[in-house]
Amino acid sequence: MEREELGDWLRLALTPGVGNSAARKLLAAFGLPTQIFSQGREALTQVVSANQADALRKEPADLAAHLDIAWEWLADGAATAPRHVLTLADAAYPPALLQTEDPPLLLYAIGTVPAPWPAGIAVVGSRNPTPQGRTNALRFGRALAEAGLTVVSGLALGIDTAAHEGALEGAAPGQLATVAVVGTGLDRVYPSSNLALAHRIAERGLLLSEYALGTPALPENFPKRNRLIAGLGLGTLVVEAALKSGSLITARLASEQGKDVFAVPGSIHSTQARGCHALLKQGAKLVETAQDVLEELRWQAPVPANAPANAPDDAEPSAAAPESALLAALGFDPVGLDALVARTGIPASQLQVQLLEFELAGEVSRLPGGLFQRMGTA
After folding, report:
1. Could you give the angle at which helices 159-170 and 195-204 cross, rounded to 10 degrees?
2. pLDDT tens string 286-304
3. Do 361 and 328 touch, CB atoms closer than 8 A?
4. Are 142 and 166 in contact (CB under 8 A)?
5. d(Cα 251, Cα 238) in Å, to the nearest integer?
6. Virtual torsion, Cα 194, 160, 375, 294, nearest 10 deg
7. Which fold has domain 1-69?
8. HSE on the CB side for 185, CA within 13 Å?
9. How far apart are CA 209 and CA 180, in angstroms?
């Protein structure tokens, strides 16, 4: 896009009092932004309010600064990952978002914009997951990407991070592995600890934001961007979530868009499972494996050329007899050492040794408060 055209789109987006809804009405009535700004006040008031018409006839004071920043940011992408500003009039704009109630006027993107856009699945959850939840998100992300779906999430800590990482592991070469829809401008990464992950996503996926460059991590922006996460997916999978969680907002938005909502059940003793259990009570689909999601979506996964025949999807960890008894006694709920002594009759000192061996093998996780939890497959 030419600099002048970008300036017109930025002006429309930055005009105070003119949101996405009014802007879309103006675009429908007059065409591209340059034609909107050539209209007289009387013509504009046939579409928007008098106050909005007056605002449109004045150039925003910060327009020149925003245009300089955006133009320089686009140019810098030539030396790193490709950068784009997609407008509602752009053929590369994701068609799934055009079907939502409130598509952004502009989308900033880092990475290779696909043509056509592939089918996606949103995977979201807690920023403070249990070890089992983190493992589940990683394995679901990997399996869904292996099935040819693009995993969409929000680059947050916890479940989002694990889902992105799993997708990057599972995606085939050339596949759009994952899309991270963020709540800041794309000239910054939040949280900063995910900087390396963001670079990996830019190489094999896509970073997306509706927020202007320079926008910091404002709390109100994250719930708003969740509509885009839901909109880009055929459905939304919630791996773990507390009752008051932004993931439940994403699930609600997906449901309002007429899309499937999936939830992974958890322990009745875990606060991070209560949001998923609430979704299940409201009609979300209970899933235990990625195959459950694929079947509900009626998605035909490609068969890898080197896939072993009849490979087990949910095989239990193998262990010697006494260790197997310990795993059985653990169950899948968090449990303390005293309870394990009572269940197994094994001395505490011996249990500590066995638990450490399982922890090193990745089959048991140590939780705060002296609790242990068996790690299941997803």
Report:
1. 40
2. 999 999 999 999 998 766 5
3. no
4. yes
5. 7
6. -140
7. DNA polymerase; domain 1 (1.10.150)
8. 11
9. 9
